Amino acid sequence: MELEKLAERLGLDVEDIRELLELYVETTCSDLAELKGAIEAKDAQLAHAKAHSIKGASGNLGLAEIYELAKEIDDRARANSLDGLNEMIQVLEENFNSLVKDFEKGG
Fold it and tell me: Which residues of the chain have pLDDT under 50?
């Protein structure tokens, strides 16, 4: 991920993007942990809420891959279908961790 391209696409400067991404990483890390806990507890309503939060934040930043994964998890959880979500969450988490590594390297 290149911060300059993301900043340009969103009409912001690089420092603003850096601050938004710091907040995004912090919030999404927490949401992911709660999402995994919700799946373990078979709490579809909480899983829906956390996936929806990740989806929204990712969409606002134009992070398409994470957005699409979170959307699919959100849709399934909203339909009370939690089967197979652990694998999807693992892929979501891998994408998120890759984004974090890129961000920590400076974009």
Answer: none
